[in-house]
């Protein structure tokens, strides 16, 4: 159920629209990255996580420190992600609604690529492009994390979601952002429309950033259909085929 929020830009029927969606706790039902760390990182990760939550260090530094604490193989971590990682049950219908209405969807995450990839494959969603930090599993058992999407001028997040959003400004008329956490606060400031919950919703309210509260992707789809009637035909197609 959408509780509150305001739209800062009106979407027009012929707009080329991009939806940028967070992964952990947004598209997925849990924070898979956190679950992986709890399961496979050795002693010391709690202090690193506490420093991150308190804002003492950014996610890039946190991941770099935690990588050295992993004590499992790639196979073990992948198997865990497949067994325990789940996509929000309302996402697939929402995604097909987007396809039907020519809305592009991309995933941005400050999480790790290996679990995002296998979870998307598990739900037949591997065609969705995603951006994340990259894990390297070495033959000697060591694990390292690379940050191809980091922002050297900021250096807080491993994967700068704001930079990714800005890269698509020239090719899309409207950009909608969906998220729930700390790493979503910055890109939410730059999007044309924001759907927020949990920490992101609280931060948007505190920062005066207009947003729409949601609980699941049905809420988002219904809001778009209700606010922009030219999306409505997709609703009936989804209801008939996929429910």
Please state how the strands of the largest beta sheet are arranged side by side: 4-3-2-1-5-6-7
The counted number of beta strands is: 7
Instruction: Tell me about the largest β-sheet.
Output: 7 strands, mixed
The CATH class designation is Alpha Beta
At CATH's second level, what is the architecture? Answer: 3-Layer(aba) Sandwich
Architecture overview:
The protein has one domain: HAD superfamily/HAD-like (Rossmann fold). It has 243 residues and is α/β, with parallel strands linked by helices. The longest helix has 11 residues, at 74-84. Strands 4-3-2-1-5-6-7 form a 7-stranded mixed beta sheet, sandwiched between helices. The relative contact order is 0.18. The radius of gyration is 18 Å and the shape is globular. It is built from 12 helices and 7 strands. Helix content is 44%, strand content 16%. The chain has helices at 23-27, 32-40, 45-53, 59-67, 74-84, 91-100, 113-122, 161-167, 185-188, 198-207, 217-227, 232-242, and strands at residues 17-21, 104-112, 130-137, 143-146, 174-179, 193-196, 212-213. Helix 9 links the parallel strand 5 (174-179) and strand 6.
